[in-house]
Please model this.
Amino acid sequence: MKPAFSVIFLTTLIGAGQGLLIALVLGQFYLGSESGGFFALGGVLALVMLGLGLVASVFHLANPQRGWRAATRWRTSWLSREVLMIPALCALAFLYTLIHAIGWAPVLMTFGNGKTLDLPMALGLLVVLGSVALFVCTGMIYACVRFIRQWASSWTVVNYLLMGLASGFTLAAAYAQIQANALSGFMSGAALVLTVAALAARTFQLWLNARTKPQSTMKSAIGLHHTQIRQVTQGFMGQSFNTIEFAAPGGAETVRGLTVFFLLVAFVIPAALLLAGLPVLAFVCQYVGLLAERWVFFAAGSHVQNLYYQAKG
Amino acid sequence: MSKQLALVIDLNVCVGCHACVTSCKEWNTSGWAGPLTDENPYGKDPTGVFFNRVQTYECGTFPDTETIHFPKSCLHCEEPPCVPVCPTGASYKREEDGIVLVDYDKCIGCKYCSWSCPYGARKFDPVQGVMKKCTLCVDRITDMTIEEDRRKPACVLACPASARIFGDINDPQSEAARAIRENGGFQLMPEWGTKPANHYLPRRKITTILHADELVRVDNPLKAESEKPRPAFNTPTIDGVSSW
Ligand code: SF4
Ligand code: SF4
Model:
């Protein structure tokens, strides 16, 4: 499939934004219902990431002026669900940021063991739920495309989740270090664990994809029961949507090269940098690596329809 | 069963002349829905929107090969995977006749539906920014100002070999349903459960038995067929013997 830069930026930016939101809430929980400026500013940072992602997504649409319509088919379309979840999460993140900024923390509930649930924590839990839901929506957009066997797997969802979390926690670690916050160590540790987990899961999917077999053959594509069928012509000598959208520029060579690149730059090097106590550098490096990862994800997807487009002429 | 309009294409008859391709392009580019855009049509690397294409395949190894001409357009699936994924509702399947259509006023051009069609039937128009595809000439087959026997898709009318049949495949009496039933009509890639409405009729073996006496004309001596002896130089010509 042809990688679209708008979607590459959209998914990596909002992934890091969602991961950062989850990191903030977990940090808040870890410190025992802490509130205040650190979380407010972190919320702003996450909102900036989500906002930039939205801007990128607009470039993907040929008719963005009717973009609002994309929210109407949430009953059947994961894409529609994502379109609804992004602004919903933005709204929640905005409230979360606001509550922390003004420091309003009324107790909502007291549990039997004397622990309490205050408003910032309750909102935080909603933000976590929203972020996870958005990860699922984004992953499912690709995982439910049955005709691209490299995507049609639950590992696609797992990977979107893990890579988003890894980059979000690395960003949180960088942010905490710059702010000299007490959470710095916690964030770096979690980022390291998540980066290693994301590396494992992504490598596993690469291994799976190297093993998948196409489900359709020339036989069923044109309904001819012969073992040797070759296309003489696809019907035209120029290009068409079918030969552009469903092919990756650069071919298999580029995909192989960039796979090695992203495994190193998105996972291995950031993990080393996190260990070395350089989370800012780790985040920049990881983000670049994830851009390459997303490019490979698209380029490596081979669509069933390509059976019909093999011979120019 | 509800009405399902579709094409039945006879692979045994199609000669690969591309008349359906050009007539489709002509009809659909001239309609009210706007042109099927071509980019760089006379340049080095042309691209354009075509709803229907004729492909050619060859099976076997030389010299025992067979050539198959294979026209392909949207199959108007009865379970179209391209429809539910559309986030705007621009893609839909008509209740009344089963035609799968795109509402160009609602489509945002996200291309998601094209990923969900295993047949590569959807064509994005980069100039208008909307997804397009075969409409079974919906503007033609429902136009009551056209005489009834001409209310058919442009490709069907154009086919010089009559390889394309148009009709309601759920009506057992229709020509289309009968062709499928009687000639072993089949669907493309049934393994995906899309239930394409368009069907194809398979290649059939055609054998001609020739006997030796059909090649050599026993009833006609070779002499009679051969070149006549040239007339002698002094043989009178017609001018020499006629009165004028
Ligand atoms: S052939 Fe493709 S575009 Fe047409 S109805 Fe079936 S899935 Fe949809
Ligand atoms: S390209 Fe248009 S018709 Fe296709 S899924 Fe997107 S909005 Fe729907």
Summary: The two ends of chain A are 22 Å apart (CA to CA). Chain A has one domain: 5-223+232-309. The mean pLDDT of chain A is 94.
